[in-house]
Predict the 3D structure of the following.
Amino acid sequence: MAHSEPEDAMSPSQLIDGRIEELGDWRGEMLSRLRTLIKDADPEVVEEWKWRGVPVWYHDGMICTGETYKAVVKMTFAKGASLEDPSGLFNSSLEGSTRRAIDFSEGEKINDKALRALIRAAVTLNQSKAKR
């Protein structure tokens, strides 16, 4: 991080801001765009910073993570295998019994409407499990 504050003195949102700035390329732009879509889909979402540098979004449980790699920005849905995906957004981690992910490559277009619907479905699933 290029910030003068130690990581533990910064909020998760500040750490995510720092990651986006630190990346300084298409991956930062993609992570920022995904973050905006998550917040649009669920204004009550809570941001966390886990596992030494992974943005994580919660609402009554984990919704998804936003991991950055050299060739992709990976959005992993914690309970993705339990979600309907009528638009076929999931393109990674398809063999698992719990998680599903979407890998976004440089220049790739995001289906905003479908992704917001998937995020809302993840929140609804978390809320249904939280009420039990």
Observations:
- The two ends are 40 Å apart (CA to CA).
- The chain is about 35% helix and 20% strand.
- The mean pLDDT is 93.
